[in-house]
Predict the structure.
Amino acid sequence: MAVRPKTLNQAKATYSSNSELAWWVFMRISGLALIFLVLGHVFFNNIQVNVADVDYAYVAERFSKSWVKIYDSFLLGFAMLHGANGLRYSIEDYIKKPGRRFWTKTILFTVVGIIFILGVMTLWAYSFEEMGEAIRALPEG
Amino acid sequence: MYRGREGQWAFVLHRLSGVALALYLLLHVLDISLVMYGPEGPFNAFLAFYHQWPFRVGLLMVIVAVIYHAFNGLRIIIMDFTDWGVKVQGPLWYGVLAVTAVIGIPVLWKILPEIFGGA
């Protein structure tokens, strides 16, 4: 298993390329941001509501708000990059054969890319405003 | 099997939770994107499927994994950027487990009755 550096100076000395060092730094910065973004997301959607009540109307009403779109865009971007790079670390630790490693990573990046685009489309390519207004106009319950 | 000390267990749990969360993230974004089919689309049927109790217990495990991964990640950052963090990384890991329990238990307290209590 690859031993990853433990300090910034070690990281600078270890990584031959600037891009690996940049990913090392990115994992820490995005990780710090994700602590707040993800715990907030869990609080809004699992603690403030019962997940069993989540349905189309709930999601459409959420996506009709600008702050949710912006919040979720940061969440989507940081989480996808942080998660994809973490999976890449794991693949490079456990899959040694160059050919198999190459194809596993190719499939990973393709799947991540497609799902990321779907996520961006969901947040920005559809207008939930009208739906959101209609749902907010409904009586409680 | 090599049985390491705190640092190794911290790493194993961080990697397991990380891989699980990344795979969950992909599935989650994919199923939320079904809202694009509109109110008559398959979205509500999918969510009703996921609201069955085995998936809700799974979601609870995802939440606990998030809490652990978040605070152990903070421990890693402290280790990376401070000298004292490396010296106390063992005790810090028990701190991570304690924080995970302190936040996780009220979460279980809130959500388990929703799944099993009919509350």
